[in-house]
Specification:
Blueprint lengths: L10 H19 L6 H13 L5 H8 L3 H13 L3 E6 L2 E9 L1 H21 L5 H20 L4 H11 L1
Antiparallel strand pairs: 1-2
Helix pairs in contact: 1-5, 2-5
């Protein structure tokens, strides 16, 4: 086992620094949207058609269902989404993007792309695409794992 030469070689520090920078600027880019970043995630999920029911959307995005209700109320008042009865279960509501919501989402995506370009500015275009591809591959692999974080930590500690 080798000793670290400096904090910059620590993956946690590197990921945390980049993530904090991105989130700080991205939050400003979506600040005028009801719910900010959470509102953006709702619009994005609704546009892809994977929003499903209100409850499924809350679970998918990791948002408390009560919080999701208030968030959807605000997005609906702004004319960005609609809640429509689910054809499979009339008691459930599906979240659907409105025309105004679609236009707003396009604007937000352009803003967030500029945020990405700002954060990744020290890299040349080929490096940016490589970094995005590698991070996406990691995120998909991690997302597919259905493991208990505490169990993983214990297994790692046992090895070292």
């Amino acid at each position: 086992m080798t000793s670290p030469t400096n904090v910059e070689s620590d993956l946690g520090w590197v990921l945390g620094t980049v993530t904090r920078s991105y989130l700080r600027i991205a939050e400003q880019a979506v600040a005028d949207l009801p719910g900010g970043p959470r509102g953006y995630h709702v619009l994005s999920a609704a546009a892809r058609g994977d929003a499903g029911t209100q409850l499924a959307l809350a679970q998918r995005l990791g948002v408390d269902r009560t919080v999701m209700t208030y968030l959807l109320d605000d997005l609906e008042k702004a004319g960005l989404v609609e809640r429509k009865p689910d054809p499979a279960d009339r008691r459930a509501r599906r979240v659907v993007l409105t025309e105004a919501g679609n236009a707003r989402l396009c604007d937000l995506e352009r803003r967030l792309r500029r945020v990405e370009e700002h954060v990744l500015a020290p890299l040349d275009p080929a490096e940016r695409e490589t970094l995005r591809a590698l991070l996406q591959r990691l995120a998909v692999a991690i997302g597919e794992e259905d493991t208990d974080a505490c169990q993983v930590a214990e297994e790692i500690l046992e090895k070292y």
